[in-house]
Each structure stands twice: as C-alpha cells, then as structure tokens.
Specification:
With about 180 residues, the protein is α/β, with parallel strands linked by helices. Helix content is about 35%, strand content about 20%. The chain has six helices and five strands. Helix 1 (about 15-30) packs parallel to helix 6. The N and C termini lie close together (about 5 Å). The mean pLDDT is about 95. The structure holds flavin mononucleotide.
C-alpha cells in the first residue's frame, strides 16, 4: 500500500529520523511504497478557525504547502507519524498540519489506517500526545496499526541503543501491501 510517513523533528539524523527509517525499511521490505515528508520542511500556516473551508468545498483561505500534503494524502492508504515529544505534545509544525486537516470532510479522506512512532527524554512523557493521537484516529476513522513510544532518550539519536527499535522495523514489516 501507499504509506505517507510524516516526520516531525527539526533535527536531521536524530531519534525520530531513526525510528522513521526503521519503519520505512520494514514497510518497503514487505513491498509497500513509502513517501517521507518532513513537517519542518513544509510551510503550513496555522488554522485560524475562519470556517471558510466549509463554504468552499474544503478549500482553505491559505495557499501553502498544505496543498502538497493534501494531494499526497489523496494517494495514501496509511498515515504514519514519527515525532519527538515537545511539551507533552506534538511539535508545532506537525500540530499545524493536523489542525489544517479540519478543512477536509472525513468521508473524503482516502487514508484508512495509521501508526505513531514517538520518542522523548522521559519515560512517562507520552500519555498526552498518545491520548490525542487515539482521539484523532477515532474521529478520522483510522484503524491504528501500532503505537510505539521510546522514552529515556538522553542524547541525539539515543534510540539507536534501544532494544525496542526492532519493534519499529517489525511494525513496518507487518503492513500488508
Ligand atoms: C522544545 C522541546 C520540548 C521538549 N519537551 C519534552 C517533553 O515534554 N518531555 C520529554 O520527555 N522530552 C521533551 N523533549 C525532549 C525530546 O522529546 C527528545 O530530546 C527527543 O529524543 C528528540 O528527538 P529528535 O532528536 O528526533 O528531535 C523536548 C525537546 C524540545 C527541543
């Protein structure tokens, strides 16, 4: 299947990229196609709640890179988010993308499933973003293929030392094309 892997760290080659890479390798080995988009490379304005999209058949007042993401979503079966925890939540560029999904009717989303890969300094940092993610998937009617959180990351790229990185690869490999 076509997978959109949305990564949300500003740091190249950090733990988020490492988790995303492990998932991608597994998913591609199984025969899936994976497109990677870095949230920090996208210029996406925050939703201003003007509701104009609801009068304009889903067209937002802003013309920015969200149209690129929407186009990719239209050819995507699965949305995978790889992200660090920022303040017990998602980094702002990722949150801006999530907010802008508001423009699209749920029925018009092709994507059917999702997975979340997160890492953080603390072991207990995930309750809030994971709770938010589950609610979002429930609302968008996305089946959750997996949620993998790795805490205790004390240095850049620290997840490389985690035994749990194999789980991330295995999750990718479990995705049936
Ligand atoms: C702005 C900011 C906020 C953060 N907030 C948290 C937090 O609330 N809880 C936590 O455990 N770690 C927090 N961290 C640490 C990151 O989640 C952690 O360093 C992560 O491994 C970074 O991944 P990366 O190298 O892929 O960007 C924060 C880091 C930054 C820069």
């Amino acid at each position: 299947m076509n997978i959109l892997l949305l990564t949300a760290s500003p740091r190249a080659n950090g733990s988020t990229d490492f988790m995303a890479g492990a998932f991608k390798r597994g998913a591609e080995e199984r025969g899936n196609k994976v497109a990677v988009v870095r949230a920090y490379d996208m210029k996406v304005m925050p939703c201003i709640g003007c509701e104009r999209c609801k009068e304009r058949n889903g067209v937002c007042v802003y013309r920015d890179d969200m149209s690129v993401i929407m186009r990719l979503l239209d050819s995507t079966d699965m949305l995978v988010i790889a992200s660090p925890v920022y303040w017990w939540g998602f980094p702002a560029p990722l949150k801006a993308i999530i907010d802008r999904l508001y423009a699209r009717d749920i029925q018009k989303l092709r994507v059917r499933s999702s997975a979340l890969l997160m890492n953080a300094y603390d072991e207990d940092a995930f309750e809030s973003p994971v709770g938010q993610y589950i609610k979002i998937c429930d609302y968008l009617r996305l089946e959750i293929a997996g949620i993998i959180t790795i805490g205790g990351v004390r240095e850049k790229g620290g997840v490389k030392k985690s035994e749990r990185i194999g789980e991330v690869f295995a999750l990718g490999k479990s995705i049936i094309p």
